[in-house]
Amino acid sequence: MKQYDNQANRIRKEVLVRVARAFFSEELRAIDRIPIDMRPRSGESSRCCVYKDREVLKYRAMAALGFGVEDETDELTSLHEYYEKAQQRTCVKDIGLTVIDIACHACQKSRYVITDTCRGCLGRACQTNCPKDAIEIVNGRAVIDSGKCVDCGLCMKACPYNAVVRSPVPCEEICPVNAVSKDETGREIIDQEKCISCGQCTRACPFAAIQERSQMIDVLGRLKEDRPVVAMLAPSVIGQFPGNLEQIITALRRLGFDAVEEVATGADETARREAAEWKERIESGDAFMTTSCCPAYVEAVRKHIPEIGKFVSHTPSPMAISAGFVRETSPDAVTVFIGPCMAKRVEALQSSDVDYVLTFEELGAMLIAAGIDVQECEAAVIDEPAEAAGRGFAVSGGVTGAIQTQFADQENNLQPVGFDGLDKKALLQLKMAATRGCGGNFVEVMCCEGGCMSGPGVLSNPKTAARQLNALLKDS
């Protein structure tokens, strides 16, 4: 389960806000003071000392400027020098997640542990169920021999006192594709060849050691230029800010965006095209078709389960269709997708129609830094509001619902199946589906459990935001 509110995430958000404030203040040197101001010499430290805290904060600020630890060639390079480099950047190429190595706690390898609640009982079910004889009784207590243990977990299931617990490495545990592992020092590294950019590890790490390279400074820079900048707002924005959709649109215009488009409009078109594609495929003999709007799932198919690639829909995602609409009407515009998803940066890099991607977290930092309160903004008029079906793409089951709407007035044999969250088990099931089928003929796959509302770049509790979205859908 991702952590939506903890001290580590609050520090990351504060760094984003301070970097954005430095941009608006135009005081270049202010950015160098961020680590010092957040960890003054007389203040408390989160680690061994304020000086290590400051070093970690410097790397967080670098990530907020779009640089990873890997980009550092000289430790003496100051934050304002990175800021100047970010200002000179005309396009974004490096989008992979970065691990702040000195922030990584180098957690012990995932393992099973006997706790103090062990009674040393006569039954000794842990010992008798262990297939590798890895459990001994020492001084009346069970002890696991880590050299023999194969992490099967049978001892934990067998213990009647729940005295055996699993101690995981959170970032490794949540990664569905085993892209996160330890290096020779015990710290975590990311295998970019395996990574699908789902971003789940960024929220799972209790030390917030895994960061994304932000494009916030790039977008702020474009907003000051003469070219029109168009915000493409994902349907999952509902519930992310204290205000309604119309007020959020006004807030974006105050921030400097020339126009704001609902990506839900693109989702409406995706639903129309995907329904037609599904019908054509099934009539031509395909066993099933899977959705294609989740970029992390598409990356997972490309890198890890190519067997199912032929079943993935060819219909462009709502973001791609929305960007195409913008390009048709405003060819010279800078297009900025704003949503909860880090994997959208991968999709944007492969598209000529999407220039930048921001998360809601980054947009929130920009609004705070600019002094814009969404609740105080007047409601904008939406000339052509999206349909409820398109707005519903934000939650698991929403795509299926939109497809069903397309067939509301005609007979169909739609048999939906859903994968609400992409984990190791789901990947295996999808791999098997390529040869054995999946019990349905329309498969919706969302990498984040609950859908986009649970993306790594959200600001609000997903359940709370989903309730607000449902209320909007009733009125759409």
TrEMBL record:
Keyword Coiled coil: no
GO MF assignments: 4 iron, 4 sulfur cluster binding; metal ion binding
Keywords of this entry: 4Fe-4S, Electron transport, Iron, Iron-sulfur, Metal-binding, Transport
Entry superkingdom: Bacteria
Domain called 4Fe-4S ferredoxin-type: residue spans: 109-139, 140-169, 186-215
Cited InterPro entries: 4Fe4S_Fe-S-bd, 4Fe4S_Fe_S_CS, Fe_hydrogenase, Fe_hydrogenase_lsu_C, Mono_FeFe_hydrog, RnfB_subfamily
Family matches, as SUPFAM superfamilies: 4Fe-4S ferredoxins, Fe-only hydrogenase
Pfam family name, one: Fer4
NCBIfam families for the chain: FeFe_hydrog_B1
Protein name (database record): 4Fe-4S dicluster domain-containing protein
Organism: Tichowtungia aerotolerans
